[in-house]
Specification:
The complex is a heterodimer of chains A (about 120) and B (about 110). By secondary structure, chain A is mainly beta. Chain A has a single domain, classed as Immunoglobulins (Immunoglobulin-like). Chain A is built from no helices and 11 strands. In chain A, the strands form 2 sheets. In chain A, strands 2, 4, 5, 6, 9, 10 and 11 form a 7-stranded mixed beta sheet that branches. Chain A starts with a strand and ends with a strand. The radius of gyration of chain B is 14 Å and the shape is globular. Chains A and B meet through strand 4, strand 5 and strand 10 of A and strand 4, strand 5 and strand 10 of B.
């Protein structure tokens, strides 16, 4: 199993550009998450999904969009990149969102810089 | 408002000693608490989960306690090694169906 994979690893964007961060998991997990991590600030939840076709906002959704057309894939879209979106983005998945099976499996991250 | 605090941003400890990291929370009643390890440039990796009705859980050199009265979890690494140097994050279940909430983490450095 590859686990959770993310592409690209690094990206530099100009202000106003758009891009999609890709995330895929091969563990047949229903739950998937997008976080951003700024230095010293911990993980902030952007969006999450409880299954194909169902998404919900997290703590910091502004400036981002998501879709979940399959169980495996959960792309994150940045429409008009701003310097405030410079961060490291992590995708994660879990079997459940409660109880013993809600440990999250993280991808390797995408480091995004907006100039 | 709900809050998770992990003690000091950084903790330095001598090799062979026991490292103790703290996770305090307010305005929560989590049923579960988890600990993760994060190495520089990598995603967090799950270490341990403890339930509210468990006082203590162990895994090799790791020990976690969960005191719902004090609203605190302690994470211990015994016989610490330089390879244990990393950032350690605690995470709590939130009410309802919302996902885990993570603390900011504590950066542990084990000095040889």
């Amino acid at each position: 199993n590859a686990g959770v994979t993310q592409t690209p690893k690094f990206r530099i964007l100009k202000i106003g550009q758009s891009m999609t961060l890709q995330c895929a998991q091969d563990m047949n997990h229903n739950y998937m998450y997008w976080y951003r991590q700024d230095p010293g600030m911990g993980l902030k939840l952007i969006y999450y999904s409880v299954g194909a076709g169902i998404t919900d906002k997290g703590e910091v959704p502004n400036g981002y969009n998501v879709s979940r057309s399959t169980t495996e894939d959960f792309p994150l879209r940045l429409e008009l990149a701003a310097p405030s979106q410079t961060s490291v983005y992590f995708c994660a998945s879990s079997y459940s969102n409660r109880g013993d099976y809600n440990e999250q499996f993280f991808g390797p991250g995408t480091r995004l810089t907006v100039l | 408002s709900q809050k998770i605090e992990q003690n000091s941003e950084a903790l330095n400890i001598q090799e062979g000693k026991t490292a103790t990291l703290t996770c305090n929370y307010t305005n929560y009643s989590p049923a579960y608490l988890q600990w993760y390890r994060q190495d520089p440039g990598r995603g967090p990796v799950f270490l341990l989960l403890i339930r509210e009705n468990e006082k203590e859980k162990r895994k090799e050199r790791l020990k976690v306690t969960f005191d719902t009265t004090l609203k605190q979890s302690l994470f211990h690494i015994t016989a610490s090694q330089p390879a244990d140097s990393a950032t350690y994050l605690c995470a709590l279940d939130s009410p309802g169906n919302t996902p885990l909430v993570f603390g900011k983490g504590t950066r542990l450095s084990v000095i040889a």
